[in-house]
Specification:
about 500 residues; OB fold (Dihydrolipoamide Acetyltransferase, E2P); BirA Bifunctional Protein, domain 2; NA-bd_OB-fold; protein biosynthesis; about 35% helix; alpha+beta
């Protein structure tokens, strides 16, 4: 007989191959609990201590085997291991954060009837309350010697076992079950919570004000993306789910919130892959009298502080190298990067025909209606982006592809905008924000014409935003960071694992 911990995957009931039969048997046990008056789902159960608290108090005491501490406790947890034979039963309980402890139910301590009921009614996966004394077993295992037990919630479905582990698809689709059986899944949830806390702390320290802005929008603005459409019955009005937070945050800044930010859900009705989701979390922040360079400093602080908060300032890259987030971060012009990749000098004046010839040489497919600016960006995305492993601020974008950014202070035809690429993935973007309402109207009108011609990603003319700008918007820097992509960087998982319950195709 052993009282050592065993993983739930290897200790789940061997008959889990027949789930319908297991459910029938468990349903009968539920009915027996209810008919006996004990209940299968009571309102409350005894609980005086968390398993974590008991572990923290006793683990450092170096208790000898067969020690009785005299400490009486009532604990709760999910059953992840059972040994139900003879006069001594072992059950291992786990609480939500992964802390585990063994409970021992002996005939001498608990009595014949409660012991028999335990053997007959408790299964792996059940939520249980156990009362008793904290002891160490003959093997030195910290345990609770039970004097009573109570069912907290009867599980009608079994946990996965070693014969039927969850597939990768099932781990995403049944995330709650994945979290029960895999510590890595639980850890990602807590890492993301720590990242969010660190992001807010960094901004709060810099006196940014957190606000909430509408998810339902009348127009499509703030990014180049295809929106989700819906209908507001009260107004009989077609509406869109926001693709970005930008325009409403700028209106708040115009109103006097000089440093403003939001962490919120955004929605883009586009393709899904390892770095793109239909619904995801964005951080956007705007600082009056800032610019793209103040946003570089802010980006470094936000990402480094988040990495420090979870103890992951060095992460393994997709190519096996190490990304040290505390090291220097590169700044490079998109024109220079594309020139390096193609072996040709490319500038803002390079004509579209020449760029198309370069793209053909490198087997980069282009759309027929793309101009020079779109071609430069496509060359960058196809030939350069994946190779940028170490943190790189890709700067000086063509004006046409960043319509909400201010013209470059020194180079005609370019805007003051950057994208931050780490591990070959765009993690964030920032601008010296355009605040001339006349130029902004011209650029949005150009975008609205593209939308009218059928471009589903083009921005629409937002008269509410333009009217606010016409009251005077201060010079500003603005930044957007993909929260889920930051979690991906720090944990090494894909975007579906970084989102707790991602949108999936129906079964």
């Amino acid at each position: 007989m052993t009282d050592q911990p065993t993983s739930p995957e290897h200790q789940a009931d061997a008959q889990a191959d027949d789930v319908p039969e297991q459910m029938r048997v468990r349903r009968e046990k539920r009915d027996r609990l209810i008919s006996s008056g004990k209940g299968a789902y009571p309102i409350a159960v005894p609980r005086t201590h968390t398993i974590t608290a008991i572990r923290e108090y006793f683990d450092d005491q170096d208790l000898a085997p067969d020690t009785r501490t005299g400490q009486q406790v009532a604990i709760t947890g999910r059953v992840i291991f059972l040994r139900n034979t003879g006069k001594l039963c072992f059950v291992r309980l786990r609480e939500g954060n992964g802390a585990e402890i063994q409970a021992m139910l002996s005939l001498a301590e608990i009595g014949q009837d409660p012991l028999d009921e335990f053997k007959a009614l408790v299964d792996i996966g059940d939520l249980l309350s156990v009362e008793g004394e904290v002891i160490t077993s003959r093997r030195g295992e910290l345990s609770v010697a039970a004097t009573s037990w109570t069912m907290a919630a009867k599980a009608l479905r079994p946990l996965p076992n070693e014969h039927k582990p969850l597939s990768e698809e099932a781990r995403v689709r049944l995330r709650y079950l994945d979290m029960i059986v895999r510590p890595e899944a639980r850890e990602i949830v807590r890492v993301k919570a720590s990242v969010l806390k660190a992001l807010r702390a960094t901004l709060d320290e810099r006196e940014y004000v957190e606000v909430e802005t509408p998810i339902l929008q009348l127009t499509n603005g703030g990014a180049a993306a295809r929106p989700f459409k819906t209908h507001l019955n009260a107004f009989d009005q077609e509406m869109l789910l926001r693709i970005a937070l930008e325009l409403d945050l700028k209106r708040a800044m115009i109103g006097g919130v000089d440093r403003v930010y939001e962490i919120g859900r955004t929605f883009r009705n586009e393709g899904l892959d390892s770095t793109h989701a239909a619904e995801f979390s964005m951080l956007e922040a705007y600082e009056a009298y800032g610019d793209q360079f103040s946003m570089i400093a802010l980006a470094k602080a936000l990402i480094r502080n988040a990495a420090r908060a979870v103890g992951r300032t060095q992460v393994t890259a997709r190519d096996g190298s190490i990304i040290d987030l505390e090291a220097e971060w590169r700044e490079a012009s998109i024109m220079d990067l594309v020139s390096e990749a193609t072996g040709r000098t490319i500038t803002a004046e390079t004509p579209a025909d020449e760029l198309r010839a370069i793209a053909a040489q490198h087997e980069v497919d282009l759309k027929d209606d793309w101009g020079a600016a779109e071609i430069v960006v496509e060359l960058f995305e196809q030939l350069v982006e994946d190779s940028l492993i170490q943190p790189t601020f890709v700067m000086d974008y063509p004006a046409e592809v960043k319509p909400l950014a201010k013209p470059h202070r020194a180079q005609a035809g370019l805007n003051e905008a950057w994208d931050l690429i780490i591990n070959g993935v765009e993690l964030g973007a920032a601008y010296s924000e355009l605040n001339d309402p006349v130029i902004q109207r011209e650029r949005l009108e150009e975008q609205s014409l593209k939308a009218a011609e059928g471009d589903p990603e083009a921005m629409e003319l937002d008269e509410v935003f333009l009217r606010a700008m016409e009251h005077g918007m201060p010079p500003a820097g603005g930044i957007g960071i993909g929260v889920d992509r930051l979690v991906m960087l720090l944990t090494g998982v894909g975007i579906r694992e970084s989102i707790l319950f991602p949108l999936l195709r129906p079964e």
